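Quarterly update from the structural biology core.
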Amino acid sequence: MKRDKGFSLVELIIVIVIVGLLSIISVPIYRGHVQRSVAVEGRALVNEIAAAQEIHRARSQTWFVGSGVNAATTTVAELGLDSRRNRYFRLFQYTMTDENNFSVETTGETGTRAEGIQITLTWKSDSPATVIENIESND
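Predicted structure, tokenized:
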């Protein structure tokens, strides 16, 4: 008697179960990596703003206080900032807490992979800048 070549139904079901288990484990991990990689753009934006503030202070002996303070904006021409080219983080807000300290905050654009991600940089004259990433899961 000749044996048919091919896979049995049991073997196919086992393979499907294994692939399903692997996808259950790997998809959430992949999404976390994607969110962290998207957050890099926001981190770069707040660091760029902090660097521009430091350059302004080195040139004029004061922090820049202008139209962008305490209001969400995409550009501050005096500091050479323009975040409109960014894909995920366009709006930012910087706040002067006093004459020696400021903070910068940006939030991911709604409807993008960055939705739910908030990046805050706090600069204090007596300590290094602190960057806090708050990534909320959209699953």
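The chain has a mean pLDDT of 84.
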